[in-house]
Amino acid sequence: MSRRPRGRGQRSVGASIALHATLITATVIALFPVVWVFLSSLKPRSAIQSSRITLFDQPSLDNYRRVLLETSFPTWFLNSIVVAGLTMVFGLAMSATAGYALSRFNFPGKRGLMWLFLVTQMFPVAILIVPIYTIMANLGLIDTKLSLVIAYCSVAVPFCTWMLRGYFDTIPRDLDEAAALDGLGPFATFWHVVLPLARPGLAVTAFYTFLTAWGEVAYAIAFTLSDSKLTLGAGLQQFVPQYNPQWDLLTAGAVLIMVPASLVFYFAQKHLVAGLTAGGTKG
């Protein structure tokens, strides 16, 4: 007979102290870099590069003013918004339709396609970037936002398809049959019946695809050449050249980058836990 896990009131004092100490330590480790970057963004460059460690040293918003008004950061920011937004929309559309097809229909090559989606996740960016660059060059898409959207979708769609397929499996097929009896076709059933029930899974997919494109660096550096086409990941590297790195601008830019991702997480958070847990099980 399996033992039932102990409840909160049944935990010993030592176990409770150890658990809370572990959680506090993990929280400090996770938050320390973010807090340190934020505090550094308020310091002048001399204080950041000083060997003397201080939490506050002449705090001001001058670094943010310089980043927003004296650099190309607003252009990079807008480019990243466009690329991440398009990646999220197209990635969500392809992942949802592919995941639904894999969940509901049987067709030749279905198992092979699922394995293909899985295998593509095993290749690192260093291997994929050369062939994808060659394809983009042959299509004349180098130094365009479209090349980044295609590259990011190639990374995000296979994983999101697997995740949404698992989520669609948890939705009873009886609903599809009832919709068919009411005269709905496969796409109408998918759009009007299944998608509204899959909002938690869709929220996770949207969040993942947005983050895939938002902070990516390797593809952005390889596929964009002109300063007006750079995204944030590639543009911020201009603040840290080999000589005379501008850590004051970099830290301020890093804090500003976190704002859109935090907003996306804030609006999607109520669906994230349900989407992640349901997507990993099959009803």
TrEMBL record:
Which domain of life does this protein belong to? Bacteria
Which ranges does the record mark as transmembrane? 12-39, 76-102, 114-136, 148-168, 204-226, 247-268
One term under GO cellular component: plasma membrane
Taxonomy of origin reads: Bacteria, Bacillati, Actinomycetota, Actinomycetes, Micrococcales
Similarity comment text for this entry: Belongs to the binding-protein-dependent transport system permease family. MalFG subfamily.
Q: Which InterPro entries match?
A: BP-dep_ABC_trans_perm (IPR050901), MetI-like (IPR000515), MetI-like_sf (IPR035906)
One annotated GO molecular function is: ABC-type maltose transporter activity
Record-annotated ABC transmembrane type-1 domain positions: 77-268
Subcellular localization, per the record? Answer: Cell membrane
Chief location: membrane
Question: GO annotations under biological process?
Answer: maltodextrin transmembrane transport
What Gene3D superfamilies does the entry give? MetI-like
| Protein name per the record | Carbohydrate ABC transporter membrane protein 2, CUT1 family
Kinase found in the keyword field:
no
Record membrane topology = Multi-pass membrane protein
Per its UniProt record, what Pfam families does this chain match? BPD_transp_1
Keywords noted in UniProt: Cell membrane, Membrane, Sugar transport, Transmembrane, Transmembrane helix, Transport
